[in-house]
Known about the structure:
Layout: E1 8-14, H1 18-23, H2 25-40, E2 44-51, H3 63-74, E3 78-82, H4 85-88, H5 92-104, E4 109-111, H6 121-154, E5 166-168, E6 181-183, H7 185-199, H8 205-215, H9 227-235, E7 242-245, E8 250-253, H10 262-272, E9 295-297, E10 305-310, E11 316-321, E12 331-332, H11 333-346, E13 348-349, H12 353-398, H13 402-432, H14 436-448, H15 450-456, H16 459-469, E14 474-477, E15 481-483, H17 490-497, E16 504-505
Parallel strand pairs: 1-2, 1-3, 3-4, 9-14
Antiparallel strand pairs: 5-6, 7-8, 10-11, 11-12, 13-16, 14-15
Helix pairs in contact: 7-8, 7-10, 10-13, 11-15, 12-13, 15-16
Amino acid sequence: MILKPSNRAIIYLRVSTEEQKRDMHGLESQERTCRDYCSERGWEVIDIYNEGAVSAFAPVMRPVFMSAIDFLKRNKDVHLVFLDYSRFGRKCTRSLPALEMLDSIGVHSVAATCPIDVSTAAGRTMRREECSKAEDFSDRNSENTSRRMKAAFDDGRCTRLAPLGYRNIPKEQQMKGCSNIEPEPTEAEFVNKAFVMVASGTVTPAKALLTLTALGLKSKRGNVLTLHTFLKMLKNPVYIGEMKSKKWHKTVKGKHQPIVDEHTFKTVQLILKGKKPVATPYQRNNPNFPLRGFLHCSECGHRLTAAPSKSETGRKYGYYRCYKCGAVKSTPSAAIESQFLNLLERLRPDPKMMSEFLPILESEWKSRTADCSEIVRRLSAELAQKKKALYALTEKYINGDRAVQRVFDDMSSQFEQDIDSLEAQIADAQQESATFQQLVEFSKSLLVDIASAWKAADIDQKQRVQNILFSNGLKYHPEKGILNSDKDCLFTTLEDFAAGKVSMARPERFELPTF
């Protein structure tokens, strides 16, 4: 190998992170050492190539490095000086080929803190050893860092940047044995609201994200959250005070304060997995036509559609119609919705309905809560078995059982899904037996003044009230108006439930025969 003598050099600098690049301390120190080395040998520094914020594990063919190589190919009488081999690269399989390529074009590459004469076989052997030492140092440092992170994780402390809803506590303010993250009030409020909205089953995650974004929800960097990021947030158990690691295949109790209650979190998980029914209304809603798709033509049974129509004066009016058989032709939406409101106003229980109904409701409630207690007992026993099996599987994996290692990811994932489902079912069963008084108040508010509730509601709420009252919809006759010949409504269900003990005042029009 022939290395050309020269009195000129370029310097290559590198740091790993943006923070180190901004501080400039590492870069300044590297540059000073390299300049001192060149000065001692009488070399003129003609340029400096600064590769800021590039990991030592990145491929050596980095953009700035490649610019330096292009320069050296055109100017082969120039040396390349860098701080040490760990700055050049920490993977022998990447750094050595790059150094040998420089040798092949006659460029002398040298580490300022460890100058080696690579023109000899002994020198090239020493260089390979230095590259190997750099990789070994990096591997040991990585192992030590991983051990410290695992110890912190096992202790219930966050090992990364705080997720949305939390903030990292400065090191000087952290207390031994306490959490290193705390809720960030504004973000935590958004996160909690997101879980509550999705858990209600009345909005999709996409719509919840849209609403929260309009209210000011942003990422840690101030950007708008993508749906993918939002869904990952909804699946993160950190918000109920747990720390979960895919790397170490375990979940531990965190030291930080939860910002979402466990029942809400479990409900959201079931909704996201499609294992819990939701009451999310039809998406293509128009607030001007709340009864579209709910009313059926009395002649053909097809759902009525609705659309605005412009008059000669240019004003728009809404109309319902049946496009299939044409029996219902351009009926004004205002007239149909007025009929439906009148129907709701007359659809109310007799004065003594509540006094007769509530004792029956209480009796049924006690029966249900007794059933819930048995369900909770059975599910809890099944949950304990699943957790025990998962613990045994994890123990075998840690101990190096090869048969388990091949299938561990699939089996542990299935166990975790089963455990999540069981915990959610237990929470639902416990929630059902929460408070009888809440059920009473809800029943009173729903049954006493349905018309006012429907009139004041938004489009989504109106459709939910309609679907609760009349699960099969209503028929509309072009002459006789809204019909319900099947007597299918919420009050019919309540009468059956009360075994005929509750009398109802039903609007006359609900009894019309089918035409």
